[in-house]
Amino acid sequence: MQDQLDLDGDERLTLDEFRTELEGWRRYGKGTIVDEYSGVPVFVNEFWTSKQRAAHSLHEISYRACFKPQLPRFFITRLTDPGDVVFDPFMGRGTTLLEAALHGRQTLGNDVNPLSRLLLEARLSPPSLTEVDARLRSLSLDGPAAHPDGFEVFFHERTLNQICRLREYLCERRSAGCADIVDQWIRMVAINRLTGHSKGFFSVYTLPPNQAASIERQRKNNARRNQTPEYRDVAALIRRKTRSLLRDVRRQVPTGPVRGFFRQPVETPFAYDGPPVSLAVTSPPFMNIVNYKADNWLRCWFAGIEPEAVGITQTGRLDAWKALVRGALVNTAAISRRDGVFAFEVGEIRNASLLLDQVVVDVARETAWEPVCVAVNAQVFTKTSNTWGIDNNRAGTNSNRIVVMRRR
Ligand SMILES: C[S@@+](CC[C@H](N)C(=O)[O-])C[C@H]1O[C@@H](n2cnc3c(N)ncnc32)[C@H](O)[C@@H]1O
């Protein structure tokens, strides 16, 4: 519990007080290194630690390039009050929004990939283990089922039948409009159990769960490792992961109401007329460092999403990336309150030769956002902190660089 308290601010700060806090930060013994870019102070220190136990168990689902809950928490607890609206225009697995809801803030989210909402929504109002258990028992997952060609490289035939029958049940419930929170929860957990490294997943040993190997690549992996998929009990693994995800719910539940979700490219304006956003905390794709389409193909199949139809921005061109950042800034400014804050997390790529925070500072100046400082959380990435699900998981990046901006 102590770790948890350490992460939070004592009280709501103004942005100027926040900047002063970062400058004088000594909580873990080291003083802040102060640098500068284009008139904007850059503060380097260990502002939050990567200790997994400081995060709520509901966060423990994997997603490519997710950030740790400690990051949005740092800003949410210092710069907003309960009831304020917190937004993430690139929400991914929804780390910002879940953390906001756990702290009683209202949540508003967007991601161009519909998978995001499926991963987040059920965790914002989790069902009980008893409800999940009862639903799983009511399903008849054993028996023949049609399945796509090639999937037997990942799954034992009986497991594959169970996956396909579960998928069919969930798709039917959704198209009939009667999928409830228990169905949504089961789908979210199943998406997360599809493939991975251990016996806790439905598949034979393959890539970490936030990346899916292609069928061809998995065929080669199996030959190299001399392995064939063993039987895994789909319902039993969903039950087990549910118990683990819910273990902290007794001490803290998400209470912040959901304002809504968008599923659109950030380059288009958000049709929102609710209370204005007080704080946005986000992390965009870092140019083309992560291949979201390839990584999520199997998850999209399970969820009935056509990956090619999802307009994810993945670009190696700096001008195209700037346009993406500009879109996120302009369209978030339009729904934010005056003096609202944007914490925009990026990294260093191409062996630190390109500091994306500098690009964000330059682009922000052309919009309604005034850059106030850059907070660089410099931490030692140990093997443990790189365990999937809590790492920042981007090849070539090793620090969180957050541009903090004020809405003019
Ligand atoms: C770095 S991830 C966000 C991870 C998130 N912070 C988390 O903790 O899970 C970036 C997200 O941006 C989404 N995305 C990519 N291009 C987009 C676009 N043009 N508009 C909106 N979302 C986009 C991707 O689907 C991906 O989920």
Report what the structure shows:
- The protein is of the alpha/beta class and 408 residues long.
- The protein folds into two domains: 2-113 and 254-292 and 309-407, Vaccinia Virus protein VP39 (Rossmann fold), CATH 3.40.50.150; 129-245, no CATH class.
- The chain is 35% helix and 15% strand.
- The strands form two sheets. Strands 1-2-10-11-7-6-3-4-5 form a nine-stranded mixed sheet, with helices on both faces. A two-stranded antiparallel sheet has the order 8-9.
- α5 crosses α8 (181-193), α6 (129-138) runs antiparallel to α10 (234-245) and α7 (157-175) packs antiparallel against α8 (181-193).
- Residues 63, 65-67, 90, 92-93, 95, 111-113, 116, 265-266, 283-285, 292, 312-313, 324 line the site of S-adenosylmethionine (SAM).
- The site of S-adenosylmethionine (SAM) has 21 residues, from loops.
What would CATH call the class of the largest domain?
Answer: Alpha Beta
Radius of gyration: 21 Å
**Coarse morphology:** globular
CATH architecture classification of the largest domain? 3-Layer(aba) Sandwich
Helix content bin: 25-40%
Main sheet properties: 9 strands, mixed
Please report the total strand number as a whole number. Answer: 11
Q: Estimate the mean pLDDT confidence.
A: 89
SSE order: HHEEHEHEHHHHHHEEHHHEEEHEE
User: What is the count of DSSP helices, taking H or I runs of 4+ residues?
Assistant: 14
Strand order of the largest sheet: 1-2-10-11-7-6-3-4-5
- Please give the domain count: 2
Euclidean distance between termini CA atoms: 38 Å
Which cofactors or ions or other ligands sit in this model?
S-adenosylmethionine
Percent strand equals: 15-25%
Low-confidence stretches: 1-5, 381-397
In the CATH scheme, what's the topology name of the largest domain? Rossmann fold
